[in-house]
Task: inverse folding
């Protein structure tokens, strides 16, 4: 009986493997990537290479093509599923020497591995999940919205422009010359930042737990935003309105506080020597 079960399991595994397809695409000379489908994506640095391993639903078509200087990956009819289709999966492996724009949408799980590049723009929307492993760039412009999740470590020689919107969840380490953060909606963020200057504008009902080390830090809150910050900086400015709350601990050589409405700033644990 055990032998029969083992044979059945082996046959099922072989059948599943046979239904799987592996495709290599001869596409090069692209500097932007756009993914809009349900897929697992791994992006790494090196000579141009685009591969896919997939088992799609009946009638679903995978399209991998270059438009101008952008690699576009998408599927058609990916919401249609037959009971006979079984489990669907799509794995995309992309190697590129340099990248300046990465756009993700749909239900995409993406990993960016150990990359060094110039100016880079990243846009995440839908229910995408992204893991950034040790990214080094000249300048970074990063935007998340919808129900996206983002984790990563980024070192920028210049500026970091970050935007967190909707119900996105973010966990980031950022090292940059200067950093601007716009946070809105019900976003939850946890960041560790090193920069000469930091400007954070938080609105809506978002929560931001932050560690900041650097020169100048300016925080502006409105709505029901909540900021919890541990800092080691030269100058700290807090401007708040509505029912927003700011709690700061650590050290700041100089502080400037302005508030209105039912807003509240807790500095009881700041400069406790």
Result:
């Amino acid at each position: 009986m055990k032998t029969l079960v083992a044979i059945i399991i082996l046959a099922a595994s072989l059948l599943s493997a046979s239904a799987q397809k592996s495709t290599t695409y001869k596409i090069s000379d692209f500097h932007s990537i756009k993914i809009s489908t349900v897929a697992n994506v791994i992006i790494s640095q090196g000579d141009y290479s685009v591969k896919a391993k997939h088992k799609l639903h009946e009638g679903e078509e995978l399209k991998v093509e270059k438009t101008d200087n952008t690699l576009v990956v998408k599927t058609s009819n990916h919401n249609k599923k037959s009971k006979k289709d079984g489990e669907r999966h799509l794995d995309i492996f992309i190697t590129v020497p340099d990248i300046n724009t990465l756009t993700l949408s749909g239900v995409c799980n993406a990993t960016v591995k150990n990359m060094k590049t110039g100016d880079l723009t990243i846009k995440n929307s839908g229910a995408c999940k992204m893991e950034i492993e040790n990214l080094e760039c000249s300048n970074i412009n990063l935007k998340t919205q919808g129900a996206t999740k983002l984790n990563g470590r980024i070192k920028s020689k210049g500026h970091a422009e970050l935007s967190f919107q909707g119900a996105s969840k973010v966990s980031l380490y950022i090292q940059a010359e200067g950093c601007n953060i716009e946070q809105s909606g019900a976003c939850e963020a946890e960041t560790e930042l090193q920069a000469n200057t930091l400007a954070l504008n938080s609105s809506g009902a978002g929560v931001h737990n932050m560690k900041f080390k650097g020169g100048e830090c300016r925080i502006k809150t409105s709505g029901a935003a909540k900021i919890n910050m541990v800092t080691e900086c030269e100058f700290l400015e807090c401007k708040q309105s509505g029912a927003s709350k700011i709690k700061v601990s650590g050290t700041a050589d100089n502080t400037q506080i302005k508030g209105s409405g039912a807003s509240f700033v807790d500095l009881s644990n700041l400069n406790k020597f």
The chain is about 5% helix and 65% strand. The CA atoms of residues 242 and 261 lie 5 Å apart. The mean pLDDT is 89.
